[in-house]
Amino acid sequence: MLKVGELAALAHLTVRTLHHYDSIGLLRPSARSDAGYRLYDRDDVARLQQIQALRVLGMSLADIGLYLDSPDASPLAVVERQLAAVDRQILDATQMRRQLLRLRGELVRGAKPELSDWLTTLETMTVYEQYFTKDELEQLPFFSNPDAQADWRQLVEQGTGLMRSQVPPASSAAKSFAQRWLDAFQRDTAHNDAFASRINLMAAREQQAMQEQFGVSPELMGYVMASIGELRRDVYARYLAPEVLERMARHQAEHGHEWPGLIGAVREQMGSDPDARGPEARALARRWMSMFQDMVGTDPVAVEAFRRASASEPVLRMGSGIGDDMLDYLRKAMSPPPDMERSTRSA
After folding, report:
1. Which of 209, 183, 185, 186 is nearest to 128 (CA)?
2. Who's near 261: CB < 8 A, 6+ residues apart?
3. CA distances from 262 to 42, 110, 119, 239, 279 (A)
4. Does residue 184 contact residue 152 with C-beta atoms inside 8 Å?
5. From the centroid of its chain, how far is CA 10?
6. pTM higher than 0.70, yes or no?
7. Share of residues in the chain with pLDDT > 90 (%)
């Protein structure tokens, strides 16, 4: 039998991860030593292999637990799923190799590959697959629709032109461009807030890939976000006092880059803890409230005006990944746990 540290080292995991799996009932050790150390046998290691395989396939820990404890689960079924995924990866890698060999052959001959050749290579080596399943990619116009991809090349060119011409983000031209960007983003994420939040997370994390593959440099992204901010500021100005607008501008400058990661984390938690009763959900809700208060303040009049604006003006949420389902989830996470409510009523 293996001790927890031995298993962690062999599986390339941390001891903390195995402790967490134990605490949530996902992987409990079959025995403990006289000194109380966790001990794992062959069946435990087999279950760990299944857990890690399903994680790679994109399944949440909560769903993995439900699946492995269901009658349909078996080591054979998991291995077959993993084999199918590996087969897809081999097929993708083979296609990528063929495309690169074609490009190399043309470049060695001194020829200039056609635009379509470069685009095919970009589509093959896409960064999207790190954030979306195959089925989701088929639903994502960003990835699957050539017309949408052509539209985005034009948008990137337009934005780059505005930025290089030093057109101010507060100008009418920049704000008109920002509205076109948001409209296209809404359309090409299939009006799906979960997709939008993952695209935003991808853009924040994969800046080099975004520039190399799509021409979206960090500078262009900064210009786009500044232009969108000015567009939204005009709308918020109809609801909020000038001092609140100034506070929001300071918050955006100092903490705006933190929102995509927070929104993405909440989306992920919504999948793994739909009832919002776990400590992770409550921690995310507290962080959300802290960020919100830093942005808007705590004055009830300002808070109510902000919420009324957000509910009434679609442009304020477009492209953010924030939907009513997320706000309902956060409210649920902020409410007292049922046990606490019962104990409070009893008292």
Report:
1. 209
2. 201, 204
3. 39, 48, 32, 26, 16
4. yes
5. 30
6. no
7. 43
**What is the phi/psi pair of residue 79, to 5°?**
-60, -40
DSSP symbols for 238-276: TTS-HHHHHHHHHHHHHHGGGHHHHHHHHHHHHHH-TT-
Q: Would you state the pLDDT for residue 64?
A: 84
Alpha helices in the chain (DSSP H): 4-11, 15-23, 42-56, 61-68, 75-108, 115-124, 134-139, 141-144, 146-164, 172-188, 193-205, 207-214, 218-236, 242-255, 259-272, 279-296, 300-312, 324-334, 338-346
Q: Where are the domains of the chain?
A: 2-68, 75-121, 127-337
pLDDT tens per residue across span 195-225:
999 888 888 887 776 776 677 888 999 999 9
How many whole angstroms separate alpha carbon 156 and alpha carbon 163? 10
Task: Name every residue whose Cβ is closer than 8 Å to that of residue 241 and which is 6 or more positions away in sequence.
Answer: 302
Strands 2-3 and 31-32: unpaired
Helix axes 300-312, 218-236, angle to 10 degrees: 110
CATH class assigned to 2-68:
mainly alpha
Helix (H, G, I), strand (E, B) or coil at 2: strand
Q: Which residues contact 204 (CB under 8 A, 6 or more apart)?
A: 257, 260, 261
Q: Which whole-number Å values give the CA distances from 150 to 115, 116, 144, 223, in the listed order?
A: 12, 12, 12, 21
Tokens of 74: 């078996």
pLDDT interval class at 316 (50, 70, 90): very high
